[in-house]
């Protein structure tokens, strides 16, 4: 997911996307533990997407407090 796409989303959409990404990460970790994960790089990509969303949310939080 591109940061420019994330910045276009509202805070509510970002919160929903964050919960979806966390659920997806849980599923991928479960698949990895049971040796059913096809592409191990998916875990890294989802973790990075979670970090991007959290970063944008934090930037907005700090910008709103000024």
How many DSSP-defined strands?
Answer: 0
**Approximate strand percentage:** under 5%
The CATH first-level class comes to Mainly Alpha
Question: CATH topology, what is it called?
Answer: Helix Hairpins
Counted up, domains total: 1
Summarize the structure.
The protein is mainly alpha-helical and about 70 residues long.
Give the tags.
Helix Hairpins, 66 residues, mainly alpha
Could you please describe the fold and organization of this structure?
This protein is an all-alpha fold and 66 residues long. The protein is built from 3 helices and no strands. It has helices at 3-7, 11-33, 41-65. The N and C termini lie far apart (28 Å).
Task: Explain the layout of strands and helices.
Elements: H1 3-7, H2 11-33, H3 41-65
């Amino acid at each position: 997911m591109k940061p420019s796409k994330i910045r276009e989303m509202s805070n509510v959409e970002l919160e929903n996307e964050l919960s979806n990404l966390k659920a997806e990460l849980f599923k991928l970790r479960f698949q990895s533990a049971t040796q059913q994960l096809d592409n191990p790089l998916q875990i890294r990509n989802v973790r990075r997407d979670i970090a991007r969303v959290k970063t944008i949310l934090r930037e907005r939080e700090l910008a709103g407090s000024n």
